[in-house]
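Researcher: Sequence recovery benchmark, item below. Answer with residues only.
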């Protein structure tokens, strides 16, 4: 009697150890499943500060340049009104110019380029 109870306990301990050793491996497949989701989100629309570029423009630029980029206190920002090259506008957005605030401390050059590409499309 005593011997067989001991055997059951040993067997139980063995099963529990097998379960905890396997436990860590079980979590990994769930992490891998999330990745395709992330890439489809970033590739669909250009992002500035975790926001689609059009909505970043509405929040940060529209009050001076107009909701449809038609111009307000600031000049119009439409493909036809932007006759200079990208480098010229990149400097203005990064460093500012008179009434135009500088965005260089908030945005990377890459994000400013995304904004310029956006300004060169029709609204
Ligand atoms: C506080 C008002 C204000 C805000 C906000 C603002 N701008 Fe401006 N912006 C101006 C003014 C005023 C000028 C004209 C500067 C000058 O030439 O004296 C200007 C000029 C520019 C120019 C150069 C246009 C040209 O034809 O020379 C670009 C490009 C531009 N802004 C982009 C942006 C973008 C992109 C944002 C948002 C990230 C933004 N601006 C936010 C006021 C603003």
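Model:
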């Amino acid at each position: 009697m005593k011997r067989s109870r001991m055997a059951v306990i040993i067997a139980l301990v063995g099963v529990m150890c097998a379960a905890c050793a396997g436990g860590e491996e079980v979590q990994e497949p769930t992490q891998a499943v999330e990745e395709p989701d992330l890439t489809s989100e970033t590739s669909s629309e250009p992002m500035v500060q975790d926001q689609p570029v059009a909505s970043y423009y509405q929040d940060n630029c529209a009050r001076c340049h107009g909701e449809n980029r038609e111009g307000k206190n600031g000049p119009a920002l439409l493909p036809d009104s932007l006759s200079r090259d990208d480098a010229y506008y990149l400097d203005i957005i990064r460093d500012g110019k008179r009434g135009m605030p500088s965005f260089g401390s908030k945005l990377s050059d890459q994000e400013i380029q995304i904004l310029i590409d956006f300004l060169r499309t029709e609204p």
